[in-house]
Amino acid sequence: MNYDLIIVGGGAAGFFTAINVAENNPKLKIAILERGKEVLSKVRVSGGGRCNVTHAEFIPNELSKNYPRGEKELKGPFHTFMTGDTMQWFDRRGIALKIEDDGRVFPVSDSSETIINCFLSEAKRLGVEILKNHVVKNFYLEDEQWFVVTSQGNFVTTKLMIATGSNPKIWKLLLDMGHQTIAAVPSLFTFNSKDPRIANLPGVVTNATVQVRGSKLSSEGPLLITHWGMSGPAVLKLSAWGAIELNACEYNFEIIVNWLQYYSKQEIFEKLKVLKDQYPKQQIYKYTQFELPKRLWQRLILASGIRNDTRWADVNKIQLKNVSEQLTQGVFKIKGKSTFKEEFVTAGGIDLKEINFKTFESKKHQNLYFAGEVLNIDAITGGFNFQNAWTGAFIAAQAITSG
């Protein structure tokens, strides 16, 4: 069966490409090949089922700083299509979006089904064929045509788009065609820790600075204590920037947590001496300081070697130093990771040196395009990974219909 464009992968980048191509040139025959029974499954679980569409950062160079891999390459593309364009794209299709306090952008409905239904209805309106249960076994270029072999039959197309994310079988086919791939490793994950200082404190959250001990990797922001360890933006950002390094040590490492974020150990020591003078009869354990969550403060006081009935007047210099260290330089052993909610993001993919970022076309094979996580591009949490998908898909669609 012959097509003008075949898109391998029924995810966000694939649908966004197909819809934009079909809108630019309604005469083109387009098919999306999806290996499973469902399309857009990753969209469905994103943002806790609400679909974090993008992030309200409207300066291209600032937006690109949220990508541990791809920052340099995305600066140019973001000047062509970025956050404001994405929001306008959905607005033109009747999808109302909202910006939350932390900058994340969601549909007003708070349901990923709103985005999925938009894609499905647009694809239907524009005549894009969606072929499910089509496992791609091979594809190759012959006489300026792409031949695609699937479990359900064979196809011929003028142009081919790969938007499969981290699919090892597709990566192997691309490797056989001469493309280099960077091995996939998890990104955006939470840290597992059985440290007694945070045991049974799920839901406690505070702003903190987190550093991987013995490295330059550090992050700051809200840190959430969970049943299994630590999560929250501070940890998730650190997992993204340290994806390769933390994978290399098999997720067995130590972190240094400053629960007071910007204060040094010496600064806190001096403040503790003032508290000792001001509240000599007050029990340290009972009254929280520095606006820390009460349960966390109490755990850190006990970890400093201070009993829960000790008054400020009775603590010595060594104990005060212990408290200041627990507050600003607490060392926690991390052993293992957990997937962030139901989302799974990977670092790795097609080597970015092999992509023309003005068109998102392969530099090795004409009329072969890429978008989304199949490229070695990934971002921190907050809608940035989807923005990469929208940008790449839009620019590729422009190139596909203009060539």
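That was protein one. Protein two is written in the same sequence-then-structure order:
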Amino acid sequence: MNSYYCGVDVGSTWAKAVAVDGDGNVMGRGLARTGMSFELAAKTALDELLAKIDAEPRHITATGYGRRNVEGAQSNITEITCHAKGAHYYFQERCQVIDIGGQDNKIIHIDENGAVDHFTMNRKCAAGTGAFIEEIARRLDISLDELESLAEQATKDMVLSSYCTVFSATEVIKLIREGTEPADICKGIFNSVVARVVEMGTLGDTIVLTGGVVEAFPIVASIMEKKTGATVKVPPHAQFVGALGAALISRESS
């Protein structure tokens, strides 16, 4: 078998692994819940990936919160660089890469060559992230699988106004008590995700969305496009874009 290269992105909620061959073609992916151990999550995602290929990688690059906890990785790179690299793999143009993650959001401005110009990260609070969506869904006693279909039935275009996940949960309880329809609250969840991102800074004409939230809830892309007026693009397997970027960096490093 020809040489291949791996990237492992250990985030706050999920660990993702991607392998590419010498030409940069994706060979496979692995996924695992982060849980209580970055090391175990990284190993589980990587083992799932390697089982599909049945050979050892030439080089492994780690990224994400747990990038220093990936056993066997020869290098570690920030998720800013890796998301830029992964997004540029799909869209070779100047754009803003917006990664909506489990605990934080990032706006990464890249040029036509994929180089990072500058970036912005959200406040320390997890409002507008995957954790925010999960917490509000729990308060509503609605499964994550049902959220988007309910939101599409909304008759009001509301936004949860609170900037804090805890206060937003309290706001949801108040809305329920007042008789607000669950579908309208669900739409409000996704409107709030977009609102929190837009408040982070000026966005350009082209936006590339990455991360597990976007992959799980395509409605976020359509709301973002409507809210900003920008052209919004979502790459295939958006949750794995950071790991893909790390794999491509592995390939260039060897």
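Residues 106 and 121 are 5 Å apart (CA to CA). Keep this in mind for the problem set.
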